[in-house]
């Protein structure tokens, strides 16, 4: 199984190099306006429930991750400050929406653990992380109350290092650092990306991954 992205024309695309060729990408466009190819998205609710893909449909139940082991299916997560992630391993792909609430409800380890149950290995897992709110812009009203105690190590004053939480969760599950492609772009600072924190925008960019049979 190889991992690739659909052919997209007239869109600003940033490839996430997972070491398997062109396998995942971030689309710097308002994906809420529609795409020229079929994708499976989800109703993102800042929780920790996971959808297992069976067939394309318009999801009405809240999920913050999708896992798929079927070839030819494109998954997409929509974000504008939250952390978008894609996973690939042994013919299985996933997308994850990790806003701070989902992140601290362990959406990342829950997704990876489910993928491992389905046949992946942590050692062979590839992960891509798209643009999201950077540490300097991640100010909370009262992080010691809002953020669960087990993540208080990531609090610095009123700021929370959300990306460090995500990276530690990946490392704790055995994901190799060299298998992680991290764009490390702050959506609020970089005006080329949509950011709810910057201007309350309703646009969203998309992070996608597709599994294709060899």
Would you give an account of this structure?
This protein is α+β, with helices and mostly antiparallel strands and 214 residues long. It has helices at residues 100-104, 107-117, 143-146, 162-172, 196-199, and strands at 2-4, 13-17, 22-27, 50-52, 65-68, 73-79, 83-89, 92-98, 126-129, 155-156, 159-160, 180-182, 205-212. It contains five helices and 13 strands. The strands form three sheets. The chain has a six-stranded mixed β-sheet with strand order 4-5-8-7-9-12. Strands 1, 2, 3, 6 and 13 form a five-stranded antiparallel β-sheet that branches. The longest helix is centred in the middle third of the chain and has 11 residues, at 107-117.
Give a concise summary:
With about 210 residues, the chain is α+β, with helices and mostly antiparallel strands.
Key phrases:
214 residues, globular, five-stranded antiparallel sheet, alpha+beta, 5 helices, CNF1/YfiH-like putative cysteine hydrolases, single chain, disordered N terminus, six-stranded mixed sheet
């Amino acid at each position: 199984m190889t991992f690739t992205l659909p052919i997209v024309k007239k869109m600003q695309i940033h490839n996430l190099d997972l070491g398997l060729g062109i396998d995942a990408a971030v689309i710097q466009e308002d994906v809420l306006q529609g795409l020229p190819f079929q994708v499976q998205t989800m109703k993102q609710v800042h929780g920790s429930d996971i959808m297992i893909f069976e067939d394309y449909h318009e999801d009405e139940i809240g999920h913050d991750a999708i896992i798929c082991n079927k070839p030819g299916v494109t998954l997409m997560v929509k974000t504008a400050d939250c952390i978008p992630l894609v996973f690939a391993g042994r013919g299985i792909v996933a997308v994850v929406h990790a806003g701070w609430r989902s992140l601290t409800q362990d959406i990342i380890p829950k997704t990876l653990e489910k993928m491992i149950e389905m046949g992946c290995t942590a050692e062979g897992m590839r992960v891509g992380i798209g643009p999201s709110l950077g540490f300097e812009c991640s100010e909370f009203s009262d992080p010691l109350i809002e953020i669960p105690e087990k993540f208080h190590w990531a609090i610095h004053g009123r700021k929370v290092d959300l990306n460090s939480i995500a990276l530690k969760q990946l490392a704790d599950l055995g994901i190799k650092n060299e298998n992680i492609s991290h764009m490390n772009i702050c959506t609020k600072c970089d005006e080329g990306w949509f950011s709810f924190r910057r201007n309350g925008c309703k646009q969203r960019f998309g992070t996608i991954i597709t599994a294709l049979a060899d």
